[in-house]
Amino acid sequence: MILIIRPQLIFSKGGSGSISVTYCAWFLRIPVFLHESDVVPGLSNRVTSKWAKKIFVAFPKTEYFDPAKIIIVGNPIRKELLDGDKNKAGDLFDLTFQKPIILFLGGSQGAEALNDFVLNILNDFLKEFELIHVCGRNNLEAVELEAQAVIEKDLEKYYHPVGFLDEEKIKHAYKVADLVISRSGSGSIFEIAALGKPSILVPLPTAAANHQSKNAYVYSQTGAALVIEQDNLTRNFFLDKIHYLFLHPDKLEKMKESALRFSTPLAARAVAREILEYFTLN
Hints:
Blueprint: H1 2-5, E1 10-12, H2 18-27, E2 32-36, H3 43-48, E3 54-57, E4 70-72, H4 86-93, E5 101-105, H5 111-120, H6 122-126, E6 130-134, H7 140-150, E7 159-162, H8 167-176, E8 179-182, H9 186-194, E9 199-201, H10 211-220, E10 225-227, H11 235-247, H12 249-262, H13 267-281
Parallel strand pairs: 1-2, 2-3, 3-4, 5-6, 5-8, 6-7, 8-9, 9-10
Helix pairs in contact: 4-8, 9-12
């Protein structure tokens, strides 16, 4: 296929199918550019890095790669995510705006553990906060049924479970959130940062090479987020962390500022500029 298309350059994000493509490119003397989103590269990107001309990285402390090849650009995000609207969020999720709003992103992997935790602390949580709970498409029915069984009647209006947020909806959820609780995949971290949202990250413990944990701790070193390992996700510990943040609005503001400093809203442009410069010089 490469022989038929004859590309002038191959840009790879990794994945199991990428090695054969990038190796063929190297063999045919087609330049390869690589982008790695996580602190710990996957196997395919580690292999490809040996013949890549340049390696774009999201995090400044990305492991394994030759420093001479690295260009720190961040992780591209969808610019539409920056266009959220508070009023639309209110209509979309039936928000009361009577309490601080927490966006809890369960994620596509490991969502059940987080969903169980939310349901276990639901009444305590809703006494002080309003919650948008993204629990996963396949979990929504079960979560709603269990929530109905445990939730106190006067707190129902503060709980908003949803299965999945597409691009049109999630931008409004981000906009209205005072705090985001999320797994720590690179995509989530850079979206949260671009929107300047304070966050608590709960790394997926089964993530390959423990990359979510490393992502989370590198990001938390900026001051933009707190990290709670899933094994430490207990009622009292978690609620104490939440209470501390909202009792210290100056801390939340500093987290917001740190998130924005870390963000890379022009990452895609930086990648494009480097590629165009390569063609200009070669």
